[in-house]
């Protein structure tokens, strides 16, 4: 082989290798790790979240995939526990080679697994409320996106409800973790801005058979309402013991602790009159209609019953739109850089992956989601609307929307 033939062969080999590399990236599935609370305190929401993630992926793949790449889901149960979440996340990242983690519900699980995702340089999308999750210390690489309000945001909503309902002497009870304490601390700050004071505050440890001593401390100061940063299991015990005292003050509970499972666990008499505050889906949007149809098909119930599943739907769509915007050969860092670009204004308003995919051919887009408008703040947080519901005759009925 002469010099000219050698150079031609080398050039041809280089072009083939480059083409193969581009083909490989563009045609290799993008793996999503669905890390959801199938068991544990978040079990009422986790299965719906997981099935919604699969449904969203099916819709995106049916539209041709993102930037020519099919999405693939690898699912695991974090058991609503940090230790189990870490083990599941390590498997998803190190063995399954996922390129993003979506659907983390518990703040404890989020705080425990984000360092693993940071080390792997992959995005993490959560519904968790602990304020520190998106702090510069935890979200040091800008890879974490919160699709729900912070605990502080819930606290502000609780304060709005307290003021609107005319309460004057609130007390707080908080589960001793980042979410529970963060929620009641957010309430304390918001209530103080309204000129109010909290008459008593108790932080309690989990997994106790009884909370009578903590409850008696609260009841001794005669509050007119008790604001709780709690979960289903501990709320069940606390409300049973409160009902046995014969006291009649009101309770304001987060929606994840006061749902149909709580009514079934303690009965309609105990839950009568409970006030429930929750973030609510973007129910008038086209995106919600698509999500709701998928959720009804998967779970045989309304999508409005599981706001976290609506958030999971948006996580997948946003990730797919970011992949589409970044292009077929984009690395994860380039995809991550597009997440806020496809969700925040300016840009053409879109409500589905297919719509966004077409609009990206001519310019920027602004995804309007099923769970909220999905406009991320500088700290990668969202601010959805809230509602106040009241439990009456065992039914949870919305009374009004709360904006903060």
TrEMBL record:
<comment type="similarity">
    <text>Belongs to the leucine-binding protein family.</text>
</comment>
<dbReference type="InterPro" id="IPR028081">
    <property type="entry name" value="Leu-bd"/>
</dbReference>
<dbReference type="InterPro" id="IPR000709">
    <property type="entry name" value="Leu_Ile_Val-bd"/>
</dbReference>
<protein>
    <submittedName>
        <fullName>ABC transporter substrate-binding protein</fullName>
    </submittedName>
</protein>
<keyword id="KW-0029">Amino-acid transport</keyword>
<dbReference type="Pfam" id="PF13458">
    <property type="entry name" value="Peripla_BP_6"/>
</dbReference>
<keyword id="KW-0732">Signal</keyword>
<feature type="domain" description="Leucine-binding protein">
    <location>
        <begin position="29"/>
        <end position="343"/>
    </location>
</feature>
<dbReference type="InterPro" id="IPR028082">
    <property type="entry name" value="Peripla_BP_I"/>
</dbReference>
<dbReference type="InterPro" id="IPR051010">
    <property type="entry name" value="BCAA_transport"/>
</dbReference>
<keyword id="KW-0813">Transport</keyword>
